[in-house]
Amino acid sequence: MASLSINPNESSLKTLEIGLKKSLLSIMQNTFPESQLRQFAHNTFLKIGCSQEDATLAANVLLQADLRGIDSHGLARLSGYVRLWEAKRINSKPKIEIVHESPSTAVVNGDQGLGLVVAPKAMEIAMKKAETCGTGWVAVKNSNHFGIAGYHAMMALDRDMIGMSMTNASPLVAPTFSTERLLGTNPICVAIPAGKQPPFVADFATTTAANGKLEILQRKNEDAPLGWVQTKDGKSTTNAHGVKEGGALIPLGSDREHGSHKGFCLGAWVDIFSAVLSGANYGPWVPPFVSFLAPSDNPVGEGIGHFVGAMRIDAFRPKEEFKHHMDNWISRFREASTVDGEDRVIIPGDPEREQEAIRKKDGIPLNDKVEQDLRELGEKLGIPF
Questions:
Q1: Does pTM top 0.70 for this prediction?
Q2: 16 pLDDT band (50/70/90 cuts)?
Q3: What sections of 192-317 are H helices per DSSP?
Q4: What structural domains and CATH numbers belong to the chain?
């Protein structure tokens, strides 16, 4: 019997071609235009009672996360906000007001509004004060989860200001040497304008990884890297469900030998600035993001707290002079010699900026479980996805 002979190289290429087509098809099925997702988020916020202005703002904050590749804080969170509204823990028509102020500072009561709306409005107040005084600082109480810290800090860039934002969050983090969950992932962002170079934007959690990244691993049924989570007994684990099983996230640095006490200090700083300073709940009393867990029966403040600030560059030195030196700083770090296997030094903000350019052009990919969650949310609210 004559046998069929196939060139191994041709066979391999054919297999690769089929695999690529399947991969591309998969990407196409799970990738959506920015405008479609933005409209869906906007309609969802309208459905729960937000004004047109607030719905637009909230949708913009969420989509900015997805565009910048921070999938854990984008549309994946939308149904969570709706559930909090259903549980009467979010006020969709808040009366956001200044309850205490000085020429350069203020405390804002968010009236249980969406943090996606409260934080940008607090940043507007900070920037207005900075225009008058050189710097402006606003502490916020009685708010909710505010999305990515980067959105609020980056608002200052267009006004030739340095922006800063931070927030406390649900207690999922054990301080160094503890088995108790007393802090949140408590992110910090600083956004600094440059001249010809893109802005410097450092946006990071004060834990080894944000809880949202853990949630992504859970959806994919994948293990967590060692150093993200500890068990209820305080031992390191790769179980992505470890927090749900009584464990905790770990401060930045993983363990004492690698600097977790520094991550603990950063998280504590955010908690104090965001809540002890404003009158919000802090530490273990911060209300949980998930709606099925009730807030503390003995709160020490009001809602979740944020802290935002703006500094006018020309309050320190001529802005063009500053931008020239920021360009020089960034350029020199880009030229730094690299370790084997790496082709460049990454400047804070580079990966997110590059991801945003790709996703604006090619669309935003959604995890299968997130897509299904959004479709179910749309069906429940009567909004086509």
A1: yes
A2: very low
A3: 211-220, 260-271
A4: 21-86+349-385 (1.10.1530.10), 97-208+250-320 (3.30.1370.60)
